[in-house]
Amino acid sequence: MRPVKMRLAGFYFAAAIALAPATARAATLRSAPCEGASHSYLLEAPPGNRPKPAILLLHGAGGHAHDLVFPWRSFAETHDIVLIAPELTNKRSFEAIAPAVFRCVVEDARRVVPVDPRRIFVVGNSMGGYLAYDAAMFQSEYFAAVAVHAAAIDPEFEPILRKADRKIPIAIYIGDRDPLVPLAPVRRTRDLLRKDGFPVEYEEIAGHDHHYEQVADRLNRAIWKFFEAHPLP
User: Fold this and answer.
1) Domains of the chain with CATH codes
2) The dihedral of CA 107, 113, 119, 123: what is its sign?
3) Mean pLDDT for all residues in the chain
4) What is the pLDDT of residues 168-192, one digit of tens each?
5) Are 111 and 87 in contact (CB under 8 A)?
6) 94-110 and 127-138 helices cross at what angle (nearest 10)?
7) Chain centroid to CA 120
8) pTM of the predicted structure, to 2 decimals
């Protein structure tokens, strides 16, 4: 297939598999058809044919797919992890189809890279964290575990907990100086999940605000430790 150059947030990516040394990660921009539309995503995968764990990275409102890929890249390189990052819209109507789109995107990635189906995880930041809760509840038997940074479940959407066929493990992280997301709704979300039987790991990060990249090194390690302990049964 002839590579087609596509522009995404000021960066150029090849839409076909990038030519790279055998030991390097391949970074590509792909598109997955789902719910009557085409959804773009970034895919970074290590070489080799052995099935590898994958993380679906969900960025914040107004951001772009690479926002979480950059802070995860070096960690993924040393831990042999596939990174899948869809380009998200902040249109309210997207929420209804988001869980299906996320699954379509991962399945498209699995067509070209070997992914361990028991170790497909989700990391969501801010708006992406809000959508990660949707992924957790509506795709609880597809994703193994979810980590959420700087997001809570709105009270009007608390009934989504009843959509989960499995009590999927969820790790929640919030800065105690986040100017956009108060602690109270995040604590309420934690308590709601625990009351309903979901395994929850919770941490309030002292002195931290809303920006994931500022704590990425420590947070990535904590999230990955949580993920390693919770593959699909």
Assistant:
1) 5-228 (3.40.50.1820)
2) negative
3) 89
4) 999 999 999 999 999 999 999 999 9
5) no
6) 70
7) 10
8) 0.88
